[in-house]
Amino acid sequence: MTTHLRTALDLAAAGVPPLPLRAGKVPFGNCRTCAKNACGGRPNMKTPGPCQCPAPCHAWAAATTDPHVLNSPQWEAAWRRAAAVAYHPGGAGLTAVDLDNAAAIAWARDTLPTTRTVQTTRGQHWIYQGAMPSRNDVRPGVDIKSLMAYARWLGWGSGPMAALPDSVRALALTDPAPARRASQAVSAPLGGQSGVCRHRTPVFLDRGIAMAEQRITVAREAVHATVYRTFLAVLSTHGRCGCLTDTHVARLFTAAQAKGETVRHCTDAWTNALTTLGL
């Protein structure tokens, strides 16, 4: 039994579905029947779940917790050639926030709830309890790996695991259709509280608004979606504290308008974010 297969069986026993990776951190190619997706995918790769092929097929969909499949003759050659072990985070009910550099890690420390941390070659994986849609490049150096994605297995990490927060879910959302009734004015503070952020300092709020302005400013494409996701992230962190004021909102709207967004679109995006979060 190879070391990689032993690791995979240990993961499967813990409820984490593994799969083998070739050199370069890429999955093994599909079997002859499924080569170039001639089989149409599983089905067409639109839903999260295991592949039914006897060989490790369809990338993340090959991941399984079935020890008989992992130890089968069809998988034996793949484990002998494997360079690493990966896993399907969504299949284990997990989400990995892949932070690819020091700047991304600094952003996460300022923005996201602390959780279990796994050191990677270039950065860190922050692991949360809960699954969500995966999405790459949600911001510079940050990918979301959960459903229908795989991540390299680098150990169990350190620290307690937090529940998947709205601020991470917001990163993978796209701009929805405009709200039917979008208010043209934004009242503040939100939540009817004291105007003081209860769970962070005012410095944290100011830094978060500045980072949100920068995220909008540096967007080179998908500006609509970036504006909406940024509003959603700000509201998911501070929308229930009562600390956001018209001045904060105006700063975000000004940054969006500098990228060509209209006041109407800004208002629609803000209203949709409020609706999504139940505010």
In N-to-C order, the SSE pattern is: HEEHHEEHEEEEEEHHHHH
| Secondary structure tally: strands | 10
Helix content: 25-40%
Q: Specify the overall morphology.
A: elongated
How far apart are the termini? 54 Å
- Rg on CA atoms, Å: 21 Å
Largest sheet report: 6 strands, mixed
The total count of helices amounts to: 9
Low-confidence stretches: 175-195
Determine the structural class based on helices, strands and strand pairing: alpha+beta
Mean pLDDT: 84
Strand content: 5-15%
Q: Note the quaternary state here.
A: single chain
Key terms:
four-stranded antiparallel sheet, alpha+beta, 35% helix, 279 residues
Overview of the structural elements:
This protein is α+β, with helices and mostly antiparallel strands and 279 residues long. Helix content is 35%, strand content 14%. The protein has nine helices and ten strands. The strands form two sheets. Strands 4, 5, 6, 7, 8 and 10 form a six-stranded mixed β-sheet that branches. Strands 2-1-3-9 form a four-stranded antiparallel β-sheet. Helix 6 packs parallel to helix 8 (246-258). The longest helix has 16 residues, at 202-217. It is elongated, with a radius of gyration of 21 Å.
